[in-house]
Amino acid sequence: MKGNDSFQKQPFQCLLTIYKLLVNLLVAAFLMAGCAHYPVNQKLGEYDPDTGYRGKLMRVPGKSDSILMFVTFSGGGTRAAALSYGVLEDLAKTEVVLEGKKRRLLDEVDVISSVSGGSFTAAYYGLFGDRIFQDFEQKFLKQDIQGALIQRIFFNPVNWVRLLSPFFDRSDLAAEYYDQYVFESGTFGDIASRKGPMIIINATDMTYGIRVGFTQDMFDVICSDLLNFPVARAAAASSAVPLVLTPVTVRNYAGRCNYKMPHVLERVFQEDSITERQFYLANNIEPYLDSEKKAYLHLLDGGISDNLGLRAILDRIVFRGDYWKSIEDTHHRNVHNVVFLVVNAETQPDSFWDGVESPPVFAAMVDSYASIAIERYNVETLALLKESIKGWAGQVRTNRCPDGKISELPGSCGDIQFYVIEIKFDALKDAQERSYFKKLPTSFRLSPDDVDKLRDAAHRLLSESKDFQRLLKQLQ
Question: How does pLDDT run across 104-120, given as a tens digit for each residue?
Fold first, then answer.
């Protein structure tokens, strides 16, 4: 009988053991989920406008003051990253003569402002300089980044548990991947220490739709130190496409670092003569000054607020009132050539539904809604730039030439030229090729062959650009 009792107890003991194991696994899972948390941005100890990650502190060694060069990289996944990379390759191969010295045109770039896919190329160059031409293709452009992220999100049980946390989500996983496999744990402090061009990575505030640039000037407002902020998290925020990925969270410490509003910002709030655009830009700052009402910033794809990356530069000029005021206290006071090189990995509208009577599917409507808004805003942004530069040359000449004696001879006070160089698929001569590039997916996965084709297209677009050739003629 005792033997039978022992035999009958065995199934019960096995079930009890399995039950205890499941309980322990569930407890461990909840503990792991509770520990999962996004990296918190650091609080700024004391506001100091003369330290940190700022454009005025990012002067490139040996760079000529006679040229001011802005480069912008648009959104568009790996397609945008590859087109931008091709442009960098060409700038590195292009030699110009400035003050009697030969220089690569790439070394004359002052600012690179980027969005979404373009942010990966910009950030990598900011961190590693010319090393981008050695390993960026294999580390990013020709990698199946999208597949790697899907693998981490859907096929890793450990991450299933971590994603149960309310403080950790898909974009946090993506940022971890970028940090480990692309940017090598690099920070904005690392970009600053390399002494290259200013890299401005742009995202969008989910609540207000405001462009948020990763610069210390912006992080001063929320009393946070950007130097130790991971570049990977900025890139993740800049490319956090709604629905596909989740917002990247940044904490707001406003009111705890003795932040003093810059004079130019105070003037906008106090004077009656400000323009509507100036007031709008200044008013965008206000929500961030109250960390009780706005304790967090939830950041999404930068393309929502500006898919060209151009507004980061335009806003600064518009905000200060005119172009002269934006350069008069800088080492570019005597600049003669101002270049805006805009790399736009534009898309093509899907006209399939134009021939179908039935209502488009939901996915098509969502895609159309986003594309229409982005493309139309791109047109408005470029129009604003082109209309503005018509008056900027006059502002410089009026303020730089004494007693109104304006001379436009080479090297004189009135010698100032502006160039807007657009690199976009519409400039390709072959209609079939234009359509091919514009229909490439905006995901983070392209074939190596498509990457090489995009690089080649960038080379041809630059060489065939009349404005680019006009610049080279002037510099040589």
Answer: 999 999 999 999 999 99
